[in-house]
Design brief:
alpha+beta, four-stranded antiparallel beta sheet, three-stranded antiparallel beta sheet, 14 helices, 41% helix, flat
């Protein structure tokens, strides 16, 4: 039961008269830590994660993005390994976490809470030296009457720190104002609550209900009160999970009213259908194809191979988040002068390696039409560079581009010089 001392109750009360989907001037956005659904369920990010579908979707999205190499490149598209930010993005953002662990936590926070936060640590020269992950459930975002944004990190009633906007790396989810992200758990709480209800109903069915064949005939005999009570107690034991599948013993001329096998009832069938529909609804919420979380109830209507499914998931499910992270890093971690020369980029080629034949044909087209060099292709395959493989070539015996249009003797002379 909610009380006036329940912080979630006050959050819901404030939300009833204030628009929490936008951060207007003079407002404060409080973190979503829980709320009630129309069906009376209490939903929070932690409770939602106990659903296998929510767990699988959030885990898939966060782990997939965290596994992609995150590089800082210069204006020549080369890796900017000499820049101090390269190590932070690609290797280790702080002393306690690897890059994979850090981005996994940031993306998971964005998926569940709508926002991911990290404290930007700088040295005396204002150079970024570390990124420290912050729990989004303790972060309050305020906007003054003149538009200044502050981040207040509250842990308990006495531990409170206020940070300027430039000190916080803020990864926003889907947003209506571009200032704060919306929590999928909050806005889809009725869907998630319905799935929890369906699971609870199924568990109750298996735990308490007797799945026998129907009725028992006693013939012309009538059981007395004691016999009837003993029979009920014996039958009740078959409603317990540990006795599922055991044989009933019929005595004194008893026989089953029907010899047909047990069939699933219309009510049970509707319950199973609701659970399947709930899985698909949650997958829609997190932009995740059901097949990728091993929900194989229905065949895909847009992907006939794993490569095509990965491409669709990358294009419609992951790319918006990848672009959001790249632009956030550019804005918060690079100076205006550095933005002209450097750009952070995720390397997504690893997601498209499922089909080796298609990948080989793709590389061949790039090589034979002078788009990429062999060493660039080798780099995509994590292979070392090879001497003499830095030239762009085209068809016609793979002639170097600078030799096209020359006579045979000119070509031979130039080739000899090479």
């Amino acid at each position: 039961m909610s009380t006036l001392n329940d912080s979630n109750w006050w959050s819901r009360f404030r939300g009833s008269w204030r628009n929490e989907s936008r951060l207007d001037k003079g407002d404060t956005s409080i973190p979503f830590t829980g709320g009630s659904t129309a069906g009376g369920n209490s939903i929070s990010p932690d409770k939602a994660m106990k659903l296998a579908t929510v767990w699988a979707c959030v885990r898939l999205r966060s782990e997939t993005i965290a596994s992609l190499p995150f590089h800082l490149r210069d204006d020549n598209k080369d890796l900017a390994k000499d820049h101090p930010l390269y190590r932070i993005l690609h290797d280790q953002p702080n002393a306690d976490m690897t890059a994979s662990e850090f981005w996994e936590a940031m993306v998971a926070s964005q998926e569940l809470d709508g926002n991911g936060y990290a404290l930007i640590l700088r040295n005396t020269l204002k150079t970024v030296i570390a990124l420290e992950f912050l729990d989004p459930e303790h972060m309050h975002v305020s906007r003054s009457n003149v538009g200044k944004i502050d981040y207040t990190y509250k842990k308990g009633t006495k531990n409170e720190v206020v940070y300027d906007e430039e000190d916080i790396l803020h990864l926003k989810g889907f947003s209506l104002d571009g200032l704060v992200g919306l929590s999928a758990i909050k806005y889809q709480s009725d869907v998630i609550g319905g799935q929890i209800d369906a699971n609870n109903a199924a568990n109750s069915e298996f735990k308490n209900n007797l799945k026998a064949g129907g009725f028992l005939k006693t013939g012309e005999k009538t059981l007395n009160k004691e016999q009837r009570e003993r029979l009920r107690q014996n039958l009740a034991t078959f409603g317990e999970p540990q006795n599922a599948g055991k044989w009933m013993v019929l005595e004194s001329g008893m026989e089953p009213a029907s010899a047909s096998h047990i069939r699933i009832s219309a009510q049970d069938a509707q319950l199973l259908e609701n659970r399947r529909f709930g899985i698909e609804e949650i997958c829609r919420t997190f932009k995740t194809p059901p097949q990728l979380i091993y929900h194989m109830d229905k065949a895909s209507s847009w992907a006939s191979s794993l490569e095509q499914m990965n491409l669709g998931y990358l294009t419609y499910g992951l790319r918006p988040t990848l672009v959001r992270i790249e632009q956030m890093v550019t804005r918060k971690l690079l100076t205006p002068e550095e933005r002209k020369k450097y750009s952070p980029k995720f390397s997504v080629e690893g997601l498209l390696r499922a089909d080796s034949a298609a990948r080989s044909a793709f590389y061949s087209q790039l090589l034979q039409n002078g788009v990429m060099t062999r060493n660039e292709v080798r780099a995509l395959e994590d292979l070392p560079a090879h001497t003499g493989a830095d030239q762009l070539t085209v068809q016609l015996n793979l002639t170097p581009i600078e030799l096209l249009g020359r006579t045979n003797e000119q070509t031979k002379d130039k080739t000899d010089q090479l």
